[in-house]
Design a protein that fits this description.
About 25% of the residues lie in helices and about 20% in strands. It is α/β, with parallel strands linked by helices and about 625 residues long. Strands 9-10-13-16-17-18-21-22 form an 8-stranded parallel β-barrel.
């Protein structure tokens, strides 16, 4: 057989000039691997075994759409391809031969999004529309583009057992779940997003396999390492780890090359242990960038210990910043228990997170009774992803209510402004931009024998919040395995109205962010902030031309009015005053209007509001000559 080199070192691939399929799998602990073709015509081929533990062979006449599985040694059971590109009947059914070149792309001119320009949107395809498919989600993309979203962060899509799932229980790393459509449906979604100027990155889970439908440990026990928080961790540095590393590293490049994805979000990186000379995270980042070629891709990690080593030496572009979320959550709800224990939601915390990234950078973290975090010196602000909602946080704290249901509207509008006008990369969770009241709860559809442990595990997890440990709260928890729990999370597309108040709020803020370079300026000296009271703080955005400076006043408490404010950050440029550029109290957003903050008598900010100001020479506060004799009129502070 002649033809080009393999795309991937494992899996089933179409041959070259000779019609057929080349198959290669890694099974070092098995003496014999038999390919069992199930359709269109049944046949069996024993693969040749190589020195590396790979088994390979060529099947003439096989074409895209063919279905196949494998027999390991003399085991009568049949197993799917560990690198299957599609599982049309689920994770334990037959694998399907896929032609990755069969789709016609239209995005040849697409080059990606600059690193500091990402506005992320976390999306779950199964609940984004009532249909729960790539095709249905694709129809909603123009709305997201109009709002100002630049980058979709799609929750995991590799095949899992059952119909509905968050996606973190995947077992077939290379196969987009059949529940959302075909691989070409996914490609069509990405292609359409690119045509609208939207990047697509994929959430990937490399720290464990799901508990149901997993056949990887039958293929090779070397895949398994020690037990982890979510299941058996993967073996990246022990005996026989070569094939495990190959699987994960090639998977990272696969999503970028065959689906034109614009990057990855790597789940729970702290659970990926590797003492190799090159950490597997560094290797998979390198492979993903090689696969991207001239395109710019974006790789972001979740890391609970807040280890900036992932940015410095592993090659990630950014990390999620839970500290900002936790402080903002306390500020908007007042809840400070469970893993929110060490946050007070103060202006100082919010300013520190915006100015310096992580709040905990090695000091004591009382909740864990240990130091937490690492220094962020030398990092750019765009290396942190900030959010006030995400899939974990909405589901973990309470009964899955959205912030709109548990916070004062004015405070939430003000914090939304802070999120979207800060130089970190903002991320919205699906439905946040419409003010959706649809809850987001944990849901799975596993086999029956896993359901009771899942129910108990979820109930025990939320007990860290004292109010959720009460008998009445435990009784009120939704059943994560119930169909109605999943269906209750599905968004209503009718809420996607560009003229609706919450949508307009997000759209206007993102337009400001997009068009005014002050808000994405990554120079350290371009941003400063100060606390004015227990509930009031200010951000000053400095530009080379002072007339382009911006001032954001944020009040998370009652109306603020003070005559004496000895803080230079609020001073306008010489011979200028401050003009209101935007206010969260605009009636179009549900507010009640905003009087001028600066007068000759005081600085005044409405309660629970954010007000953005720009310099204006026409409204500078006039200087009067002092009273005769030097007497001054007393001003009450």
């Amino acid at each position: 057989m002649t033809g080009p080199a393999r795309r991937l070192p494992i899996g089933a691939e179409l041959g070259g000039s000779e019609r057929g399929v080349r198959v290669r799998v890694w099974a070092p602990t098995h003496a014999k691997v038999t390919l069992v073709v199930e359709a269109p015509a049944p046949r069996e081929i024993v693969l040749g075994r190589g020195l590396t533990g790979h088994h390979s062979g060529f099947v003439p006449g096989l074409a895209p759409g063919a279905l196949y599985r494998f027999r390991l040694d003399d085991d009568p059971a049949l197993y799917p391809d560990p690198a299957s590109r599609f599982q049309p009947e689920g994770p334990t059914g037959p694998s399907e031969v896929i032609d990755p070149d069969g789709f016609t792309w239209t995005d040849a001119a697409w080059r990606g999004i600059p690193a500091h320009k990402h506005v992320l949107y976390e999306m779950h395809i199964g609940t984004f529309t009532p249909e729960g498919t790539w095709a249905a989600a694709m129809e909603q993309l123009p709305f997201l583009a109009a709002v100002g979203i630049t980058t979709l962060e799609v929750m995991p899509v590799n095949e899992w057992a059952g119909h509905h799932n968050w996606g973190y229980d995947g077992v077939c790393f290379f196969a987009p779940t059949h529940n959302y459509g075909t691989p070409d449906d996914m490609r069509r979604f990405v292609d359409r997003a690119h045509s609208l100027g939207i990047a697509v990155i994929l959430d990937v889970v490399y720290n464990h396999f799901g508990p149901s439908g997993n056949t990887m440990f039958v293929w090779c026990p070397y895949y398994k390492s020690k037990a982890g928080d979510w299941g058996d961790a993967l073996n990246f540095d022990g005996e026989g780890s070569t094939g495990v590393r190959e699987l994960v590293i090639e998977n990272a490049g696969y999503w970028i090359s065959e689906f034109h994805l614009d990057g990855l979000r790597i789940d729970a990186t702290q659970a990926i242990d590797d003492s190799s000379s090159e950490h597997v995270l560094a290797a998979l980042c390198r492979r993903a960038r090689e696969a991207a070629g001239e395109r710019t891709i974006f790789i972001v990690g979740e890391n609970e210990p807040q280890d900036t080593k992932l940015l410095r030496s592993h090659g990630l572009d950014a990390l999620w910043n839970d500290d900002f979320h936790h402080s903002a959550r306390v500020a908007v709800t007042g809840l400070s228990e469970g893993y929110l224990h060490d946050y007070r939601g103060t202006p100082q915390e919010l300013l520190s997170a915006i100015k310096r990234g992580f709040l905990y950078q090695g000091q004591l973290y009382p909740w864990q009774r240990n130091p937490r975090g690492t220094p962020t010196r030398g990092t750019q602000r765009a290396q942190f992803v900030h959010f006030i909602e995400n899939h974990d946080q909405v589901a973990n704290i309470g009964f899955g209510e959205r912030l709109r249901d548990v916070s004062p509207p004015g405070t939430l509008r003000a914090l939304t402004a802070l999120l979207l006008l800060s130089p970190e990369l903002p991320m919205l969770f699906q439905g946040q931009e419409t003010g959706s009241r649809r809850p987001w709860r944990f849901f799975v559809d596993h086999c029956e024998d896993l359901r009771d442990p899942i129910r108990k595990g979820r109930a025990d997890f939320v007990k860290q919040f004292k109010r959720m440990a009460t008998a009445e709260a435990q009784a009120g928890l939704g059943d994560p395995c119930a169909e109605q729990t999943y269906r209750g999370c599905i968004l209503d597309p009718a809420e996607r109205d560009l003229d609706a108040p919450w949508v307009r709020l997000h759209k206007d803020l993102l337009e400001l962010r997009r068009n005014d370079p002050a808000f994405t300026d990554q120079r350290f000296e371009a941003l400063d902030g100060a606390v004015l009271s227990d509930h009031v703080f200010v951000l000053r955005y400095f530009q080379d031309d002072p007339s382009d400076d911006r001032l954001l006043l944020v009040n998370l408490g009652s109306t603020f009015s003070q005559a004496i404010v000895a803080e230079p950050l609020i001073a306008p440029p010489a011979d200028h005053g401050w003009r209101i550029l935007w206010s969260s109290e605009d009636p179009r957003y549900g507010g009640h209007g905003t009087p001028p903050p600066f007068t000759r008598d005081r600085l005044g900010i409405p309660g629970r509001a954010a007000v953005l100001l720009a310099p204006d020479p026409s409204i500078s506060i006039r200087k009067d000559p002092p009273p005769p004799g030097g007497d001054k009129e007393t001003v009450e502070p």
